[in-house]
Amino acid sequence: MNPAPPDPAAPVPLPITGEIDLHTFNPQEVDDLIPAYLAECAARQLHEIRIIHGKGTGRLRTRVHCLLRHSPFVRTYRLGDEFTGSWGATLVTLR
Predict the structure, then answer these.
(1) H or E element, residue 92
(2) What Cα–Cα distance (Å) separates residue 82 from each residue in 3, 54, 86?
(3) From CA 44, how far away is CA 49, in angstroms rounded?
(4) Which pTM does this prediction carry?
(5) Inter-axis angle of helices 30-43 and 59-69, to 10 degrees?
(6) Which of 22, 44, 53, 86 has its CA 20 to 30 A from that of 33?
(7) Distance CA 58, CA 62 (A)
């Protein structure tokens, strides 16, 4: 008996490493994704997070920063430097 093929609509587990690249997600998913990822990082006691949102038009960066500003898990955040992604990434320190 052959096993059933995987369901393409089934959720795919993400490794929680303290870095997330939003290029692999639809922008509509960010409002749910970022708070859930921050909560999981906090639960795993990861305090330094890097969110890669890309440079583009800045709309995604603005949305990410809005979510970070309102998150109870976030102590501080800032854009990356020349070694951590420049203005295409945001570095987050969790509480």
Answers:
(1) strand 89-94
(2) 48, 14, 5
(3) 12
(4) 0.85
(5) 50
(6) 86
(7) 6
Q: Token match 């999981």: residue? A: 40
CATH value of 20-94 in 3.30.1370.110, 3.40.630.30, 2.60.120.10, 3.90.180.10: 3.30.1370.110
Do residues 22 and 59 make contact, with C-beta atoms less than 8 angstroms apart? no
Neighbouring residues of 42: CB distance < 8 A, sequence distance ≥ 6: 73, 94, 95
**Token reading at 81:** 């430097």
Neighbours of 67 (CB within 10 A): 19
- Per-residue pLDDT reduced to its tens digit, 24-77: 999 999 999 999 999 999 999 999 999 999 999 999 999 999 999 999 999 999
The set of residues, in sequence order, having a beta carbon less than 8 Å from that of 89 and lying 6+ positions away, is 50, 51, 52, 53, 79, 80
